[in-house]
């Protein structure tokens, strides 16, 4: 073995060890932070439900506090998930650590006073920030994206405790149709450790085993295909409305204080009038009702879309993924009757596929289906998600996402 080859092997081993150590440390740190954030959010949700009519009138005032915090202390952190994607694509060179307390506190405020929002965006931002901070301790090419993806997997895995789905989500979300495979080991290690850490600190994983015995014959496959297309259209609708809503509201009311205060008053009234807070918060109430076969209204999924889009467009903080789970599950509970399939299975398919369509991801929602509802159901998730993925939206809930894909169905006609 020549000296040059020996040096390369030694350097490669050193890099592997450094990345592994940073992945472990990132997983531990992010696991602790997401446990604090997630448990705090659960407590806030329970407290809000118990005191809904006392807290909901103050949503507009909470909005003013959120805008003030971002105007005075955020700086670059005000871009939120946009900054994470900018880092991933080399358009930014720093994620400030103040993003973590800022996005955590403002998301808690949104949920405490009844806003309809999610939580995954916060977890991914937390993970990305910690991962970026860890990258300062190493020096090798392409470290920025590797550590960013590693941190994103840790954030998603720590909060949802679906580490394998978290890894695939982090690998495929930056660029549609492309996996950041160089980050596979780091993301896997960080995601697993973060998930175990948050669980050890008392953050419970949501699981709902679904047991069905369906043969994937032609008739069942066609049903799953039809469901996938329906869920793909629902995810597309959410992504398009969110993109349109943020732009439209900003044009109509340019002043962020006036926008969130006046809009917050209207949002409070709507949340009270529309089923007395049924659509506030994460939407876990809709998920549980859908999967358990309890009462679901035909308009639940549409109102959850509308109120989540309005909440986020006005400037309140939070993510989109858990509301997407709720939208998909409640739509699935309605469609199950029409398609003649078990309600729990179709609600589970909607849970995963609407999320996948709105985020332009394919592998992550299939693994979420396995980790939450049972791996025996993966064939059903694969078929439904394949057809949901056919409904390719021009927009995504992540405006910074890049698209480098070839057409799924190539053109039969030669180019002129």
TrEMBL record:
A Pfam family this chain is assigned to: Voltage_CLC
Stretches that traverse the bilayer: 16-38, 50-70, 146-171, 224-245, 257-275, 296-316, 322-341
InterPro entries: Cl-channel_core (IPR014743), ClC (IPR001807), ClC-type_chloride_channel (IPR050368)
Principal localisation: membrane
Gene3D superfamilies: Clc chloride channel
Subcellular location: Membrane
Topological category with respect to the lipid bilayer: Multi-pass membrane protein
Swiss-Prot/TrEMBL keywords: Membrane, Transmembrane, Transmembrane helix
Name of this protein: Chloride channel protein
Organism annotation: Streptococcus caprae
